[in-house]
Amino acid sequence: MKDFKKQFAFWKNQRITRRHALFAFGYSLVLSTTLFSCSNSPDNSQQQAASSASNAASGSNTTADKVIRIVRSKQLTALAVLEQKGILAERLKALGYRVEWPEFAAGLQQLEALNAGALDIALTAESPPVFSQAAGAPLVYLAANSSDGQAVSLLVPKNSPIKSVKDLKGKKVAFQKASIGHYLIVRAVEKEGLKLSDIESVSLPPPDANVAFSQGRVDAWFIWEPFVTRNVQNGTGRVLVDGGNGLRDTNNFLSTNRKFYEENREVIKVFLEEVQKAQNWSKNNPKEIAKLLSATTQLDPPTLEIMHKKYDFTLIPITEVIINKQQEVAEKWYSLGLIPKKVNVRDGFLTPEQYAEITPKEILAKN
Fold this sequence. Notes:
Blueprint: H1 2-12, H2 26-30, H3 44-57, E1 66-69, H4 78-85, H5 87-93, E2 97-100, H6 107-116, E3 122-124, H7 127-134, E4 139-145, E5 152-157, E6 172-175, H8 180-191, E7 200-203, H9 206-214, E8 220-224, H10 227-233, E9 237-242, E10 252-257, H11 258-263, H12 265-284, H13 286-297, H14 301-307, E11 315-316, H15 320-335, H16 352-358, H17 361-364
Parallel strand pairs: 1-2, 6-7, 6-8
Antiparallel strand pairs: 3-10, 4-10, 4-11, 5-8, 5-9
């Protein structure tokens, strides 16, 4: 615990610029108490190139003097729709903001950047926020999103003899540390009477895991779309199980840090309003969203139309049920020894009155 505090204090006091945001390994080092190898952040030059491209697309050549950095999504999500359509950028431009869309390998890397001040709004599964809170980050949960469990799958090589989760005992299973893949492999093995220690965990960010899987260096890989469909289509893998049928019991979350929330409530309100509109449009226009996001996902429109059925495109109000479930997730990670201290997730949630200020009325009506 002493080492954890020293590491976190050291990295917290370092000045991390935007240019080097993706090399912010401090948070990863804080989490080195896990049993898994540390993952690498995406190449900085790639993020800069992606940001430059998104700046041009979102009107960065304006006189806007403030920037809001929203994570780039390369899945079938409302965020991807907002970036491609430019609707949010136009609305925030009127408020003096320009939008940037930095790209990250997974949720853990997003929240490293969020804590370092290099990202303002993240979209992750349930576990990254817990790991972030365990590291002392001032995270704020803005909204919950549908779980989209079928969009996360456990892949095995196409000709693998593995027929069930029980067959994974003693096998190498890859996943991004602190991700939905990590959480679901825990649930999947426990459902079959096994423990996480019964498999050989291989912690890799998605790009590296993709290479390892294609080269046969791991026996299975828990990952999300579009990696799943790409590997099935190219004949590299097949789906053993997915997060549907009750395996996934949690939600995705849009989150920010406390400072950004306190200073930009009106912007957050506008953002959530546009997310809700994009959710509705995405749900009701499967052909259109498939065409819109074909280049981003590197999948053809017909394939994306099939994938569309795996997503619910729904924002969900923050309720006691959501908070209590997130607390269960935190307690699970602590019981496994993968976070260094107990976490009270409620510290990251707002009051009902504060949520009422920023949440679209259409969403609040679902309570």
